[in-house]
UniProtKB/TrEMBL annotation:
UniProt feature, compositional bias: Basic and acidic residues: 105-129
Spans annotated as Disordered: 100-129
Database matches in InterPro entries: Myb_DNA-bind_4
Domain Myb/SANT-like DNA-binding: 7-95
Biological source species: Mionectes macconnelli (McConnell's flycatcher)
Superkingdom: Eukaryota
Protein name in UniProt: ZSC29 protein
Length: 129
């Protein structure tokens, strides 16, 4: 299946992209700007070092698609649905999870960091059914 960025991304290519994306420096740059061509040119250059030949547009498209998919899975989970999932959810949650909650960045994606209201609300919903 080809996306608009050309050939389909392999699992290893996506992993490499996520590894670069998880760099705090890259994250800070991405959070601070909408015009991010320069940042994705850096990302593409770093992928080259792994032997992955992608241009900045392909990297940006994949980044946007992963982010969008993550958000839709995350909101489904937050509403109590477990039917939606995606391949790289945990890796992306480690990167994007902190955007919604500042304390989460203190621990590495530790479940116990969630505010008690969340877990109570979820278990409350389950026991009604």
């Amino acid at each position: 299946v080809a996306n608009e960025g050309g050939k389909h991304w392999t699992v290893n290519e996506v992993r490499a992209l996520i590894r670069i994306w998880s760099d705090k420096n890259i994250q800070q740059q991405l959070e601070g700007t909408v015009r991010n061509k320069r940042i994705f040119e850096q990302v593409a250059a770093r992928l080259q070092k792994f032997g992955i030949d992608r241009d900045w547009k392909q990297c940006r498209t994949k980044y946007k698609n992963l982010k969008h998919e993550y958000k839709s899975v995350k909101s489904a989970q937050d509403s109590g649905s477990t039917s939606k999932s995606m391949k790289f959810f945990n890796e992306l949650d480690a990167i994007l999870g902190h955007c919604t909650m500042e304390q989460a960045s203190k621990s590495d994606n530790d479940e116990s960091e969630r505010p008690p209201e969340w877990t109570e609300a979820k278990s409350g919903k389950d026991s009604i059914g």
